[in-house]
């Protein structure tokens, strides 16, 4: 919370304009292109990260597929995760979020601009509809972020189990899956400090459909998790 307050204080001159633009665009997203909406969110994200005294150390951007229509699968450490990834993206990307977050002021508007999909984890039927919709959008060239753990680990750089259901849309769309290793992202919001922090984002080599087409979703989930854990162990062996 302290860092969020600091982000606002460091951008006081921009906040009124940023809120106005966010509310206006999110109210009528159909009037703006995806690129225009993404550019606005990137602008807000850039100012928040800079004002919050967080350095994003990005690696492996060359691993992002040349063609759109891919799924980014990062480990989940906290609310800062999406901000860190968006900071490095040069092409529009949306997100799959849990329904509980849709009621949070401003986050709701950000999701509207990004064309985010919301999953109600208590409603299996609704969840399947979202998976099918995401698969169709992936086929059409939309890029998505989904957190296979389903919730933040609360254990720093240690991962929870990856859920196989998170990969159903990728299998239906036959799209590349990109593991993303986040390191120290939890320190931005979960330590109660406003000291300068560095968050590492590692885009790992994508897994093409041909490499996982014969796997079960649980096997693909385990594969992605293993790759992320290996990268974290390589960078932070003591963790």
How would you summarize what this structure contains?
With 239 residues, this protein is of the alpha/beta class. It is built from ten helices and seven strands.
Global morphology = globular
Just give the CATH class.
Answer: Alpha Beta
Low-confidence sequence ranges: none
If you compute it from the alpha carbons, what radius of gyration comes out, rounded to the nearest whole angstrom?
A: 17 Å
Number of domains: 1
Q: From N to C, what is the helix and strand string? A: HHHEEHEHEHEHEHEHH
Helix content: 40-55%
Quote the average pLDDT. Answer: 91
Count of DSSP-assigned helices: 10
Can you tell me about this structure?
The protein has about 240 residues and is α/β, with parallel strands linked by helices. It has a single domain, classed as Glycerol-3-phosphate (1)-acyltransferase (3-Layer(aba) Sandwich). The chain has 10 helices and 7 strands. It has a 7-stranded mixed beta sheet, with helices on both faces. Helix 1 crosses helix 3 (about 35-50), helix 2 runs antiparallel to helix 3 and helix 3 crosses helix 4. About 40% of the residues are buried.
Describe the SSE topology:
Blueprint: H1 2-9, H2 15-27, H3 34-51, E1 54-59, E2 71-74, H4 81-88, E3 94-98, H5 107-114, E4 117-119, H6 124-139, E5 144-145, H7 168-173, E6 177-183, H8 186-189, E7 197-203, H9 209-212, H10 217-235
Parallel strand pairs: 1-7, 2-5, 2-6, 3-4, 3-5
Antiparallel strand pairs: 6-7
Helix pairs in contact: 1-3, 2-3, 2-5, 3-4
């Amino acid at each position: 919370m302290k860092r969020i307050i600091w982000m606002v204080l460091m951008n006081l001159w921009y906040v009124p304009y940023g809120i106005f633009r966010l509310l206006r665009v999110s109210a009528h997203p159909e009037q703006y292109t995806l690129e225009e909406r993404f550019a606005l969110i990137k602008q807000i994200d850039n100012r928040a990260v800079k004002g919050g005294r967080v350095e994003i150390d990005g690696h492996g951007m060359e691993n992002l597929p040349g063609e759109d229509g891919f799924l980014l699968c990062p480990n989940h450490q906290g609310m800062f995760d999406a901000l860190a990834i968006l900071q490095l993206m040069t092409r529009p990307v949306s997100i799959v979020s849990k329904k509980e977050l849709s009621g949070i002021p401003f986050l709701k508007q950000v999701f509207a601009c990004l064309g985010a999909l919301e999953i109600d984890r208590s409603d299996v039927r609704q969840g399947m509809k979202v998976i099918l919709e995401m698969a169709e959008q992936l086929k059409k060239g939309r890029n998505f972020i989904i957190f296979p753990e389903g919730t933040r680990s609360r254990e720093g750089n240690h991962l929870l189990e990856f859920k196989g259901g998170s990969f159903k849309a990728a299998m239906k769309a036959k799209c590349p899956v990109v593991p993303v290793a986040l390191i120290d992202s939890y320190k931005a919001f979960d330590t109660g400090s406003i000291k300068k922090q560095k968050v590492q984002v590692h885009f790992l080599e994508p897994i093409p459909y041909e490499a996982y087409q014969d796997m079960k979703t649980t096997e693909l989930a385990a594969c992605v998790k293993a790759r992320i854990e290996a990268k974290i162990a390589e960078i932070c062996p003591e963790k």
